[in-house]
Amino acid sequence: MKITYKSDYALKTILDLAAHFGNGPVAINDLSQRLDIPTKFLEQILLDLKRAGFVESRRGKVGGYSLGRHPGKITLGEVTRFIAGPVEPIACVDKKYSGCQDIGKCVFRDVWEEVNRSASRIIDNVTFEDLLKKSKKMNKAFTYQI
Amino acid sequence: MKITYKSDYALKTILDLAAHFGNGPVAINDLSQRLDIPTKFLEQILLDLKRAGFVESRRGKVGGYSLGRHPGKITLGEVTRFIAGPVEPIACVDKKYSGCQDIGKCVFRDVWEEVNRSASRIIDNVTFEDLLKKSKKMNKAFTYQI
DNA sequence: ATAATCTCTATTATATTAGTAGAGTATACC
DNA sequence: GGTATACTCTACTAATATAATAGAGATTAT
Ligand code: FES
Ligand code: FES
Predict the structure, then answer these.
(1) pTM score above 0.70
(2) Which residues of chain A are within 8 Å of residue B2 when distances are taken between CB atoms?
(3) Can you give the residue range of the structural domain that contains A9?
């Protein structure tokens, strides 16, 4: 799991779409401006997310993107794994990697798998609905503070 | 935490040195042959590990590297964090990153921190002595199997 | 002395990530 | 139908990170 710019952009995009869920499609331009993401880069990310079924799209005028499922049915884990790869270290899952020839003999593998399970337990239990609620709460608290 | 080739090499090197702990220094050439790591690359890794205090070195004839501390006093967490960076996603810890301006408002941060804590709990409780014991057990089991 | 072995800095090669470009396709609306 | 709008797709470039290599220099046992 490597949260690169692409991963970060993807997660924030899904969160934004979650905030607009039910209100019709959101245009790439709106997203890219609001989230400060290069438009052309976001295009590609959205196409990836679409192929994975996280978002749906509609072309032409009044076109744009919308969430493919209810925010409560999309977990952070799903999206993260799709866009940022598995939580466990790449070496263990990379087929080309030959450092641990006899994989049953690698003492590190068990530990990484435990790390993986423990991280999965967390991120698989957070939905974008949860994150959205939290975000609204945070914004409110922030506003009142001023 | 990104287990690259370098990280992988480093962890295996420490484990090998743990296996030879107390028997005097091990030469880079021995390590590089046994672990199948490019010698010159391993040189650099060992220098890094030395600067961090994980290993000690001795030059000249009968020179080589040895563990700086008892294998039971070196945790997988320490070495991993040093060589592979923090467990949490880079965005959150990268100072140059400006995607989450108002860091108190980022809804993802809490989750990544929880992932981080949970992973740390695991890898900070595994020492190289533990890994070494496990490795010996595995090799024995493997031998008997044949 | 000298052979063995670590030390340090620089350089190169390869892979990944980030971003850009542009032509193409669908849709609403007049 | 024409046209503006917005998604689709493939290719390309730039920047950065990773992996590896090269070579001169310093230390130590014998
Ligand atoms: S480090 Fe993953 S199998 Fe050895
Ligand atoms: S993703 Fe780390 S602070 Fe927002």
Answers:
(1) yes
(2) 2, 89-90
(3) 5-86+128-141
